[in-house]
Amino acid sequence: MKKFSSLTMLLAVFSLLFAFGPHQARAGSFTMTLTGAGPATAGPYYIYPYDFSITDGAKTFTNVALMCINFDREIYFGETWTANEVTAGSLGKNYEEAAYLYSLAAAGSGNTVADAQWAAWYLFDPGAGSTDPADGDSVMPLISSAGLNYSAYANYDVYLPVAGSQIPNTDGLPQIFIGNGEPPHDVTPEPSALILLATGFLGLASLLYFKKRGVPAAASF
To answer: For the whole model, what pTM was predicted?
Structure first.
């Protein structure tokens, strides 16, 4: 009885952790269209926010503000592509650090936004250089700070482009973007996680039912 009870509880807890842990994926794919950016720049480059229209089935969301994290990829106003949304934690430390930098840009203004944006570009494309041309600041202190604070940003959203899906299809892969809580998807457990979750709760419910009736749980099997 005690052994069965412990196993059931362990399964239920594992199911919850798997379903709601930082490695979750978002469900499905959707269409992103770049509609605008700025108004701030760093040198000749637009910086956060990049504004999108996102279409998911019959729903369209406008003025979705995201931050790009690829310096060496070119995108254009009006360009459209298919993307999938996943968590930063599912992709690794660099993406969680980028999520931290995004949080600074989203909450900041002026030079803070430019420095955070340039730090994100440097994180993935060191060829961008470690100096923000907007104000001449080195972004290395922000890179160091991201390395210390990244673990709290695992559930931020990363928008991954699908290769070859962009219209017009005249250049390479579109940029990867990052945000937090934007549409189209909320956190959704994948099917395997839902199965584990349901199994855990079924076992727990059976245990509690038979315990209440005074019948050994093992007798139900």
So the answer is: 0.73
